[in-house]
Amino acid sequence: MRAAITKAVNNDPPLRRRGDRYDPRLAPVGVLSRIVGDAGLIVTAVVVSQILLAFFTAVPRNSWIVVGIESLTNSGPLLAGTLLLFVLAANTLMGVYGHQRTFALAEKLLWLGLSTLIGVVAAGVILFLTLGVHALSISSVLAAGLLTLIILPAARWWSWAYRLDIKGAEYRYDLAVRRRAAEKLLAAGGDDSTTGTVLVIGGAGYIGSALLPRLFDTHDKVKVLDVLMYGKETIAPYLDHPKLEIIKADYRQLDQLVTAMQGVDTIVHLGGLVGDPACAWNESLTVEVNLTYTRVIAEIAKASGIKRFVFASTCSVYGASDEILDEESGLHPVSLYARSKIGSERALQRLMSPEFAVTILRFGTIYGFSGRTRFDLVVNLLTAKAYFDGVITVFGGSQWRPFVHVEDAAKAIEKVVNAPVPLVAGQTFNVGSEEQNATLGDVGRLVNRLVPTATYLDSGIDGDRRNYRVSFYKIREELGFKPDWTLEAGINQVLDALKAGKVTDYRDPRYSNVASLKELTDRTFLSTAADDARELIYAGDEEYRMPARLDDERVPATTDGR
Ligand SMILES: NC(=O)c1ccc[n+]([C@@H]2O[C@H](COP(=O)([O-])OP(=O)(O)OC[C@H]3O[C@@H](n4cnc5c(N)ncnc54)[C@H](O)[C@@H]3O)[C@@H](O)[C@H]2O)c1
After folding, report:
1. What span, in angstroms and rounded, lies between the C-alpha atoms of 216 and 464?
2. Domains and CATH numbers, the chain
3. How many CB atoms are closer than 10 A to CB 451?
4. Which comes out higher in pLDDT, residue 501 or 397?
5. Residue 54 in contact with residue 140, Cβ under 8 Å?
C-alpha cells in the first residue's frame, strides 16, 4: 500500500475519485439487474431451504443428501416458479425495482420486506390450495417462503454495506495520496497558495462582496471581473483598496476576459445567472452565460497557464432525494439552473489536468448580510417578510435544504484557494454543515421565534420539487471547514440590519436576481451569441429572417459586437 501511495504521489495524484455517479440512461439496466439478481436469490432460497429441510428431517439421518435432491427434483421447479412469479410481481407492482435509488436504506429494506412478504404469502396460498394436486409438503413451502423472506432484504443490505466499504476504502486511499502529495509540496517549499493574483469573476455579487476582504489578507492582488449588474455599491468599502483592480465587463467579451486573466494565478468563478427563477426566464441566455462561457473561461485559463480554478456550484444539483447526499451521490436536477451547473461541472472535470487544478464547491442555500444582500433566498426573504409585513408564509414546509451563511461561503472559498493544490485539485466539496440541514418549515418557525409578532402561515405544497439533505463530512474532514454562523445568528444579523434601516424595501428589484434581470437595460447583456450570429446571417435580408423568438419578454438582439 505504501509503495502504491508513493508511486501515485510521484506520478501526480489522481484527479478524480471513482464514484458510482448515476446515469439515467442506465436506469433500465439497473432495474433489470435487480430483477435478475432477485430471481437468482429466490432460486437459491428454494435450493438451500429444501437441502436444509432434508438435513434436519431425513430418516435415516445419513440419507439427507438423497432426500434433498429428490425433493428438489420433484417439487423444486414448482416451488421456485410460483415464488418467482408472485414475489417478482409484488416487488415490481410496489415499485421496489424502479425507485430503489431514491430510497433511504431503511425505507428500501422496509418496502422490499413488505412486498416480498406479500409475494411469499400469495405464492404460499396458491400452493396450499393446490396441495392435493402435487406432491408438495407444507414444510417445504414454509421453509422456501421463510428463506426467501430473509435472503432478499439481507442481500440488499449486504450490497449496500459492501459498496459503502469499497467507497470508504477508495476514499481513504485517495485522501492519503493527496495528503502525502500536499505534505511533499509544503516540505519542498513549493506551495504558493497564499500569494499571487486572484481573479474573482462575479466578485461584486452576494458571495463575492463577502469574499474580497478575505482575499486582500492573503493575496498580493485581487482582480474583479464583473458586469456589475447590481452596481458598484456592493463593493463600495473596497473600491480604493490598493490591492483591488476592477474590470467592469461581461465575461463573454473575450478581449476583456483575456486581459483580465493576465498575470493571474487563481480564478474564482462566481459569475452567472443565479437561482431557479432567473435561469428559467431565458433558457438560451442561461445556457450561454452559465455553461458555454464557464467552459470558455476555463479553456482560456488553462491555455494561459493559470494553475487553480475554483467554481461555485450549488447543492441544487442534488434536486429531489430522500437520502443524505454526499459528493458521490447521484444528481437529480429539477431546474435549468441546476442543470447549467451540472453541465459546467462536467465541462470543468474534462479540463482538469495536473497543471490545471479545478475545485468545485457546491454551496447550500445562502443567507445573511453582505455587500449585496439578496432577498430572493428563503431565510432572508422570510426574515424580511416577518419584519416588514408581519407574516411568514412558508410554501413546501417539509422540504429539506442545507443552509450556509454568506460569510461561511466566503470562508470556504478562502480555504480552498489557500489549500495546497494536491489537496483540492480535482475535488468537489459540499459547503455547509449537517446542523444547518433544515426544512423550510423549521426556518419559518425559527424566524417566527425571533420575530414573535409575525404570523406563521403554512401554505402547503409548492411547485419547487427540490428536497435534499447533504453531508458535509468531506469538507470538514479534509479542509477543517466548520461554519462560524448558525441560522439563528444569521437571521438576527439580517434583523439588525433591517432595524438599522439598511434596507427599506426588500422587494426592490436589486435584491432579487430575476427581478433585476427583467429590469436590466443593458441590451448587450441580454442578447446571446446565437442572436448575434442570426443578425449577421440575415442582416438586410428581411424575407429570410428567422421566426421571432418564443420568449417575447426578451429584448431584441443587437448587432453591436461584444
Ligand atoms: N447565493 C446562493 O444561495 C448560492 C447557492 C449556491 C451556489 N451559489 C453560486 O455562487 C455563485 C455566486 O452567487 P451569488 O449569490 O453571489 O450571485 P449574485 O447574483 O449575487 O452574483 C453574481 C455576480 O456575477 C455577475 N455576473 C453575472 N453575469 C456576468 C457576466 N456575464 N459577466 C460578468 N459578470 C457577471 C453579476 O454582476 C453579479 O455580481 C453563483 O455561481 C451561484 O450559482 C450561490
Report:
1. 38
2. 18-166 (no CATH), 195-367+404-434+469-485+514-545 (3.40.50.720)
3. 20
4. 501
5. no
pLDDT digits (tens, 9 = 90+) for 176-194: 988 998 888 888 877 766 6
Q: Which three cell numbers stand for residue 230?
A: 447590481
Task: At 360, give phi and psi (nearest 5°).
Answer: -110, 130
* Mutation probe of ligand 1 site: the residue of 200, 206, 464, 512 with most atoms within 8 A of C-beta: 206
The reported pLDDT for the residue numbered 5 is 32
CA–CA separation, 227 and 247 (whole Å) = 8
* Cell digits of residue 515: 427581478
The atom number, within ligand 1, closest to the CA of 525 reads 31
Q: 197-201 and 266-269: which strand pairing?
A: parallel
H or E segment and range at residue 247: strand 244-248
Say whether 377 sits in a helix, a strand or coil: coil
Q: Residue 363: CB within 6 Å of ligand 1?
A: yes
Is residue 229 within 8 A of residue 161, CB to CB? The reply is no
270 Cα to the center of ligand 1, angstroms: 5
CA max distance for the chain: 101
Residue 552 has pLDDT above 50, yes or no: no
Q: How far apart are CA 103 and CA 116, in angstroms?
A: 17
CA 129 to chain centre: 52
User: Three cell numbers at 113?
Assistant: 420486506
Contact 340, 287 (CB under 8 A): yes
CA distance 56 to 50: 10
* pTM, 2 dp: 0.78
Helix (H, G, I), strand (E, B) or coil at 324: strand
- Is 558 or 501 the better-scoring residue by pLDDT? 501
Query: Is pLDDT at 347 greater than 70 in this prediction?
Result: yes
C-beta of residue 380 within 8 angstroms of C-beta of residue 374: yes
Residue 516's SS3 state is helix
- Indicate whether residue 397 lines ligand 1 (CB < 6 A): no
The mean predicted confidence, pLDDT, of the chain is 87
Query: Which residues fall within 8 angstroms of residue 410, CB to CB, at 6 or more apart?
Result: 207, 210, 211, 214, 370
Alpha carbons 343 and 286: distance in angstroms, whole number: 12
- Tell me which of 234, 270, 286, 526 to substitute to probe ligand 1's pocket, judged by most ligand atoms within 8 Å of the beta carbon: 270
Q: Quick one: pLDDT at residue 390?
A: 97
Distance spanning both ends of the chain, measured CA to CA: 54
pLDDT in tens, 260-299: 999 999 999 999 999 999 999 999 999 999 999 999 999 9
